[in-house]
Write a structure and sequence with these properties.
CATH class of one domain: Mainly Alpha
Order of helices and strands: HHHHHHHHEHHEHHEHHEHEEEHH
Distance between the termini: 26 Å
Structural class: alpha+beta
CATH topology of one domain: Helicase, Ruva Protein, domain 3
Oligomer: single chain
Helix content: 40-55%
Amino acid sequence: MLRFSTFVAVVLLSCGDAARTQDLPAASSQPFDAWLAEVRAEALTRGIRPEVLDAAFADMQPVGQILKRDRTQAEFALDLTAYLKRRLTRRAIQTAQQMHTQHHDLLLAVGKKYGVQPRVITAVWGLESNFGRFAGVRPTIPALATLAYDPRRATLFRKELFSALEIVNRGDIELERLKGSWAGALGQPQFMPSTYLEFAQDFDGDGRRDIWTSLADVFASVAHYLKEHGWSDAATWGREVKITKGSKARITAVPHRAEGCRAERALTEPLPLKEWTKLGVRTTAGTALPGSALDASMVTDGARYFLVYRNYEALLAYNCATSYAISIGMLSDRLK
């Protein structure tokens, strides 16, 4: 688990037809069939049963639409304002409020056990699967094989392919039911296969970690993941702020991180809240920031500014996109 400390970061957000199979780039000079044979051989050394591989790889070919989706993810293709407008609609907020009330007791029990605010669990659930209405319909193994064959992130998705095979090999779910997003994300929490193996929870005590149909397991798995990635109820995710006239240059001069995912590298080094006040950061009401001992950081698309704490980093661990993490935070705030 990551050590808890809060921070504030400044982030600058960057603002058809399915691709044909023959247009897909190859991870090497190998044709797909030869590449798949090597994957099968490695899977056998990892303990995957031959009958599982026979069923999983039968008549498999790359799926062109998968790569098209990979190149046009909304979290990176849209600026913050456009993304928030698309995801945090009035209907989405109303549904979140209804679902949060409907499952209040279960969310409260999960939140108490894992130390994660129930409203944050609801927000993640809502944005990941539209409150359980969409958990993905694409067969997972072909999707992951396509992405593992593509050179852009071959190492990452090769690992996820083996993890998905292990889920079937262990009998956690039948192959024909192993479906998810175009990127291989599974169930209502939209966990990648390796994430499922490490973090999925059996909160209802039936002996299965069912992130597809058991809301108890879904909520607990989300909470467990966030907790293990540094979430602490000692603070929230962050807040939108304003800056005083002439302070933009001072704020953008604060150093950024050199490591981490793209959204993490866009974060500034942590500063105490009082230092941000000196730099010209104010609440949206125009008042001074609270005089707490928290360190904090900032996010901006050039027009809107957000001071974010360490819990924001836990949200980035779930999905490394600034617009996604802010959306979760803002939706959870509407559920207070």
